[in-house]
Structure formats: structure tokens, C-alpha cells
Amino acid sequence: MITNIGNCSMKVMLLLTLSLLSGCAEHVAERSGSDVDLFPITYTLNLNLKINPLHMSSADEELNQFIKQYWALVTTQPMSMTWRSDLGESLVKETILDLRRKGVDTNQIHLSVEPIEMDQRFDFQFTITEYRALVDRCQYTKIGHYSRTDEGCFSNGARWQSMVNPERALKPFVGER
Questions:
Q1: How far is CA 4 from CA 8, 11, 13, 14, in A?
Q2: 126 by DSSP, 3-state: which?
Q3: Which secondary structure element, helix H or strand E, spans residue 40, and what is its range?
Q4: Taking Cα atoms as reference points, which of 142, 176, 138, 174 lies closest to residue 156?
Q5: Measured between alpha carbons, how far is 161 from 130 in angstroms, rounded to an integer?
Q6: Are 123 and 93 in contact (CB under 8 A)?
Q7: 19 class by beta-carbon count within 10 Å (0-12 exposed, 13-18 middle, 19+ buried)
């Protein structure tokens, strides 16, 4: 009988130990990434070179002033140059040489030619497109609220807003939806 009581108390001790080890676990919610919206901001300069081809120097000055004003974007963001005439093409070639001399990566420049149309006012166009990230507004952390899904919101939002080219981070995910 003593062995039977000892065996029973061992079972109770084992059962009690297992129940204490399992304990109560809080439900941890699954984390999801931030919602990020990218907005393109486009800066464009259009020049009409057909009116007076002798005033190419003023067109050069206006283009150089535009490049100087947006220099931070010219060095980091994609650009496009479009021409519709021979004068526009020569201005594109000069601009590319000038930008290359100043150290700009010419792989970021997209070139295109368009046919001349009667109602077309401009025969040269220089466009810079910058993408800005808009992230969710973060809520302040509350003491005693554990396993919140928006932990790290401030650092993740700051990471997206500090990116120079946020559109490149999304290229692997484009087309998944």
C-alpha cells in the first residue's frame, strides 16, 4: 500500500509540474509591415527653340539655372530628356556632356525623341521625377499594452522617409497584387 501511495504522489507531482510549466501564454498578434504610399513629384522644364534659333544661349542659361536649382535631384533621381527638333537634339547632346563632366550618372537619363506636331509648343523637355514616401502616423506606446502590432512604427517610418530612391525598394514587389 505504501508503494501505491508513493506511486500516486509521483503522478500528482508530475502532473502538477507539467501544468506549472505550461502556464498561461499571452496571445501574440502577427506583425505586419508599414503601409507606405509613394507619390511621384515631377519637375519639368520646357523650352521652345524654334522661335529664334539665335537665342540658344538664353535657352542654355535657362537650362543651366534649372539644373543648378534642382542639383540635389539631378544627382540622385531619374531624369528624362525629350526633343522634337534638330536644335533640341543638339541641346540634349550638350546637356549630357555637361552632366557627365559634372559627375552625374548618365545611366539615370532616359532619352526619347518625339515627332514634330503642328500644335506642339516646345521642342525640348527636361524632366526630373522624385518619389516621396508617405507612411502611417504612429501612435504613442502605452504602458501595459503588450504585443501591439505597430511596435517599431517610428523607426520603420523614418527609414522609408529617409530613402533617396524609395521606388527601388518596391521593385521586387511590383506585380504581386
A1: 6, 11, 14, 15
A2: strand
A3: strand 36-47
A4: 138
A5: 13
A6: no
A7: exposed
Place of cell 557627365: 100
| Strands laid side by side in the 79-83 sheet | 36-47, 124-135, 79-83, 109-113
What does residue 87 show for φ and ψ, rounded to 5 degrees? -65, -40
User: Helices 86-101 and 56-69, interaxial angle, to 10°?
Assistant: 40
Kindly report the pTM of this predicted structure.
0.63
Query: What is the chain's pLDDT, residue by residue, as a tens digit (177 residues)?
Result: 455 655 677 777 777 776 666 656 555 555 566 677 788 899 999 988 766 656 667 888 899 999 999 999 999 898 999 998 888 888 899 999 999 999 998 888 999 998 877 667 788 899 999 888 777 776 666 666 665 555 556 666 667 666 777 777 766 554 444
Q: Show the beta-strand stretches assigned E in 65-162.
A: 79-83, 109-113, 124-135
Distance between CA 160 and CA 172 in Å, rounded? 16
